[in-house]
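Morning!

As promised:
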Amino acid sequence: MPLNTDKTIEGSFQLIGGDFSIAGESSAQLKKILTDLGVAEDIIRRASIATFEAEMNVIIYAAAGTLSYTITPQQIRIVLVDMGPGIKDIEQAMKEGFSTAPDWVREMGWGAGMGLPNMKKNSDEFNLDSVVGEGTTVEMAINLP
Amino acid sequence: MKLNEIIEKLSLDVKTVNVGLQKEVTGVYVSDLLSDVMANSQDGNIWITLQTHLNIVAVAGLKKLSGIIIVNNRHPEKEITEKAESDKIAIMTTSLPAFEVAGKLYQMLS
Amino acid sequence: MTIKELENILQAKIVVDSDNLDLNIDSACSADMMSSVLYYHTANSLLITSLTQPHVIRTAEIAGISIIVFVLDKQPEQTTIDLAKEKKIPILVTPYCMYTASGKLFETGLPGCLNK
């Protein structure tokens, strides 16, 4: 399904760690952008879920981060870069159910250990880099038909 | 209804060994929040959740729950089933989601 | 299913009403963990939950949930209500616990959502 434009659309959002009051709003805005562009519903859903989980990870675990997006007629590319604790064992972190969330996070409905698996499940390309003590970068791409 | 009857009727997968399944189930509690289970569950309730971390065993023990059903095909790590065995808490799993397990139990127990 | 039918089945109060007469619900999900709602959920679903903070509404919007039911008479804060109105997601509050609310809805033939 063609986009309502053939230009490349880019943007970014600043994320503040620990700020649950607007947590998820950046993903909601990206969802709106994709809807306005005429992207297919199932792709919007996948992109929104992947972005939302990534955004929540930054807010739950990191001090701050940036969510950037690039939309071309071929692909939606989302990059999350955070300043946070980093991930010691990426393979372990990708396991469904594995979580390092503290109890108070669990009591808010997060920390079920599904975030990273959700992100990978909904992307066509998924890459995660992390340095303990510095932060994490997640890159996801979803292809447009 | 006894726990083993429920296990059979729902085709639950029992993950713990040597934990008695004869317990009488007094009711059902559905929640993923430990604070909620601590506050509102009753003695002998069977607990439906998707949580698989170690704290669920402690909570089930403190509240004297008859067992834990973990849903959505999620599986507890060996560390959790071992602790459950040592604390005599039965852990079962199912591929069904919480809504359906609760629904079926509601039909069975009402 | 209409919102009035839901109101009756769950002895619920409508906190945020729906613009649509037919809610178009295909399935239901009972969960407190947001990521499970996103992982297992299918669109046009009803969410039964005990968490009432605004991020539940945001999760629902991302997941495409049509309606939210809060259990145990948990009243959502004003920020949650305002956000639900903005996102056009109706909210009901039932005095039933998650088990009973699930049971009563399951009885109507509504399937659970499991989208792997």
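Chain B has one domain: 3-109.

Hope this helps with the figure draft.
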